Amino acid sequence: AAAGTDTDVLTVSLSPTDLINVPSQGEIRFTETDNVDNYVTADYESPVHVAPMEVYDSLGHMYNIYVRFTKLQQNAWLWEAESTTGEPIYALDAEGNKMPNPDTGKNDLPARGVIAFDANGKLAASNWRIDDDGNIITSGGPSGIWFEPAETGGALSSTSSPPSAAGANTVKIQMDFGRVSQYDAPSTADLRDQNGNAEGTLQSFAINSNGEIVGAFSNGLTDTLGQVALATFNNPSGLTSAGNSMYRQSANSGIPVIGQANTGGRGSISAGALEMSNVDLAEEFTKMIIAQRGFQANARVITTTDEILRDLVNIKR
């Protein structure tokens, strides 16, 4: 650019193939060829993409976190984690430890790092960082984020935490950028995998063949609530009948050996089924005989009625 007064309008022509190194502060300077102290500035806004994600604390409360990606160089992007309500989100190292902040002397380093790509658009590094002067450091970057639920506003409120959030554990999230790539296309980034869930209530349960009681919850999770135990006896024939197809331990049966189904000679469990051994055969046979006698009695009544009608017909003749 040529030097001029405040009222001069200067034209700068750039070739489409020219590359301009943009400083991290986003200011571009056009200097005079013969006088570097004479320059004009232009602001540059780096491409930015924001990826939202929902995370949950140990009590099932949801928090909206945003990861903001800002382009620094041709193949390097700055990522920063932010909460929707502006509470601080901090950095974790690769071992899941809170990273120290040299400015405060505490483990409250802001959650931001740098990811880089190679010439083919594949992820080359995800543990870089940026210093206070905007310089990229190719080591020592964060691998995850953390925050205290009591300090971070949840989805239930924009100004304060949920009532029980203070009792939740510290939320730690490992950031895996392994599937992120860089191509000449509109930016997209989505949360693919997570191991947190919202709070849920028990909706139903079922018992499998091993006796495990599996509960289904309103948040889509299933969990083993308990297990039904089975017992065997050294002398099953020595059990004492307690009526209604039930038996109790006796001195002849020995003590029960309790364990899991399908182990140690114990049978399996069929949920919702009734074993044949639970049927009182004597009682059922008695009911069947009574039903048969009733049928025979009814048949005889019909036979007698038929004979009476036949006699009446003969009398008329």
What are the salient characteristics of this protein?
single chain; 317 residues; mainly beta; 4 domains; 32% strand; elongated
Explain what the structure shows:
This protein is mainly β and 317 residues long. The chain folds into four domains: 1-45, no CATH class; 48-174, no CATH class; 204-278, no CATH class; 280-317. It is built from one helix and 18 strands. The protein has one helix spanning 281-316, and strands at 27-32, 35-43, 48-56, 62-73, 76-83, 90-92, 112-117, 123-130, 136-137, 144-147, 171-174, 202-207, 212-217, 222-227, 230-232, 240-243, 246-248, 257-259.
Helix content: 10-25%
Average pLDDT taken over every residue:
79
- Biggest sheet statistics: 6 strands, antiparallel
Number of helical elements: 1
Structural class: mainly beta
| SSE run | EEEEEEEEEEEEEEEEEEH
Overall geometric form: elongated
Strand and helix layout:
Blueprint: E1 27-32, E2 35-43, E3 48-56, E4 62-73, E5 76-83, E6 90-92, E7 112-117, E8 123-130, E9 136-137, E10 144-147, E11 171-174, E12 202-207, E13 212-217, E14 222-227, E15 230-232, E16 240-243, E17 246-248, E18 257-259, H1 281-316
